[in-house]
Amino acid sequence: MIQRTLERRVLELARRFPIVTITGPRQSGKTTLCRMAFPEKPYVSLEALDTREFAVSDPRGFLAQFPTGAVLDEVQRAPDLLSYLQVVSDESRRNGEWVLTGSQNLALLESISQSLAGRSAMVQLLPPDLRELRRFPDPPADLWSTVFAGAYPRIHQEGIPPGDFLDGYVASYVERDVRQVLRVGDLASFQTFLRLCSGRTGQLVNLSGLGSDAGISYHTARAWLSVLEAGFIVFLLRPFFGNLGKRLVKRPKLFFLDSGLLCFLLGIREPVQLETHPLRGEVFETWVVSEVLKSHLHRAKPADLLFYRDAKGLEVDLLIQRGHEWAGLEIKSARTATPTFWEGLAKLDALLRSRGTGLCERTVVYGGETEIRRSEVRILPWREIDRID
Asked: What is the pTM assigned to this prediction?
């Protein structure tokens, strides 16, 4: 298995905190990371029914099995265990004893904030970013094969066709987790909702429209979308909120965190379909936003990402906070770069400068293969996306 960028940071945190918590989607590689970083620690999965029953019915006895700590996988399945773990950790006063993983962010965050505040460092592990993906023996070679395959590790480690893996992934994890959290009775409506979300990737969230098209209420649509976000299936990119004297949009944009899962839900079954697909631009934008997010999270850096759009149509796809400044990023799937690609960046930079600031960097990522050097903007091919930050 490949080495993950986050491993170094996890080891650093284990030297400073008694507990390290790693969250992320199912099958993103959390278990493998823990076993590589802490090979000497016992590993226990709370997905196993008998193990979970022991942890729930006799938490003190369960934790007593591990006098020097352990890796506890999917701890959101036994949230009350964390209160007892707090006592054990406080008594031992040793850093790096416990490593927790979880795939339902809201439930886990709530439990940790109540029981382990100040005792646990938290990081997020998403499926491999492009730099990590290249560490596999036979990574995808071209843009659309990369986007189509997505980044779930088993696809690349075991050579599983993406459609075969993702079909089981949706049924085994996405739909099951939603049923567990929300007690969804009408699974067909949720499946419709999930596919409708895929068709709106890269677009402003419209819960009323989503709910109406899926045959559910606005409040149900909001609850279901929240669970998809908490389960690391989708990511909501918030709008820029600065006071520029403009009417700015207030709704977030919806993105899927894995482009392969997005393609599967859109019914794309071969990479070549992406070249002429009507959502080609949105799919490429989704992939780029996900890669930028991964580059931050996998180095345990704050992912301060926004987009800009005002009522007059000025839009910049991504704003990346760097200290007190913002870097602007435009995302274009075309293979040939033209000056229109960076017009929005120039206009936003001028607008910000009229208020005493400006973009500290202007970058375009496009679907071509060649880096283009311009004085006013940096134009990177998709292969160089890891150079953005």
From this structure: 0.93
